[in-house]
Backbone:
């Protein structure tokens, strides 16, 4: 933890075109704080240094990164591009912010673990912030796993392990929107991040001057089926889905997928008192209720007015 600096000017990397960066720009802007959307590409160190010295932000938020389109399988065939942004770019920004004493919030990933003998599926024993990554079955996760031990060396960096982020809209980045479109889904309990609750939490944590690694997920786990059942309950009662096994899933993917539970003890202990974080099952149900209201307002009566890409029947 660093001595808190008043949040007077936020510089956001990934704020122009990124999903989480864009949401953070809106959120911080609503609090009447000056928000600057970064122009420099993080891999260009000299440009980032110049921008930091020109803007002189009180806080930096790093939400730029490559996850691939349509999914992380893209990274398997674009390894130099993935390294350039996810490794070189992120380290550049953390290093330059540290040189200038600027607090830097990094939206990282918790998809660097998989259930193992010490953390069995269904045990309730989650990986802590002190555990070393044990999942490298995708190149995306490999790059993130390399990064975290290095980022922890920077005393001005706060590294947030986001997992399977969920929003109350139909963004293609929304975990719910993704799995709704799949022909079949695995059904495994996982830690997940409901952005409506967690992004304001990240802002409060930055204001408090928190640093180091945090498992940035709502407490507990929720399965794919439980998410889709809530989607059926609130959004589309006609929606149906089918399951398949991890072994069957692996036959249609280039890269493996991380499944894990992350321990939220440290997060909840250090969370500013004014922030309320629900357990994941409550948070997802509340999210689906908000989504129902938002989509009805945007498109009309559900489910008939839903866009075709999320209608299976």
Residues:
């Amino acid at each position: 933890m660093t001595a808190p600096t008043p949040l007077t000017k936020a510089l956001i990397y990934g704020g122009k075109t990124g999903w989480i960066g864009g949401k953070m720009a809106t959120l911080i802007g609503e609090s009447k704080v000056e928000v600057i959307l970064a122009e420099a590409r993080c891999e260009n160190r000299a440009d980032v240094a110049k921008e930091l010295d020109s803007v002189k932000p009180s806080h930096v938020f790093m939400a730029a990164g490559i996850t691939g389109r349509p999914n992380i399988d893209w990274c398997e065939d674009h390894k130099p591009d993935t390294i350039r942004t996810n490794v070189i770019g992120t380290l550049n920004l953390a290093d330059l912010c540290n040189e200038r004493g600027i607090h830097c919030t990094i939206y990282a990933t918790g998809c660097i673990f998989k259930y193992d003998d010490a953390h069995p599926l269904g045990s309730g024993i989650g990986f802590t912030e002190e555990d070393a990554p044990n999942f490298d079955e995708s190149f995306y996760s490999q790059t993130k796993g390399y990064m975290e031990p290095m980022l922890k060396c920077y005393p001005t960096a706060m590294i947030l392990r986001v997992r399977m982020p969920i929003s109350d809209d139909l963004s293609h980045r929304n975990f719910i929107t993704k799995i709704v479109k799949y022909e079949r889904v695995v059904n495994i309990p996982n830690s997940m991040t409901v952005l409506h609750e967690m992004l304001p939490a990240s802002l409060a944590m930055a204001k408090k001057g928190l640093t180091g690694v945090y498992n940035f997920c709502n407490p507990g786990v929720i399965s794919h089926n439980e998410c889709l059942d809530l989607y059926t309950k609130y959004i589309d009662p006609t929606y149906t889905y089918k399951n398949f096994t991890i072994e069957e899933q692996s036959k249609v993917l280039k890269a493996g997928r991380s499944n894990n539970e992350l321990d939220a003890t440290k997060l909840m202990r250090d969370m500013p008192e004014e922030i309320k974080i629900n357990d994941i099952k409550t948070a997802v149900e509340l999210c689906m209720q908000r989504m129902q209201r938002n989509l009805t307002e945007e498109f009309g009566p559900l489910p008939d007015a839903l866009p075709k890409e999320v209608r299976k029947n």
In short: The first helix runs from residue 19 to 30. The longest strand covers residues 103-109. The chain has eleven helices and eight strands. Strands lie at 9-13, 34-37, 59-62, 103-109, 157-162, 184-185, 212-215, 242-243.
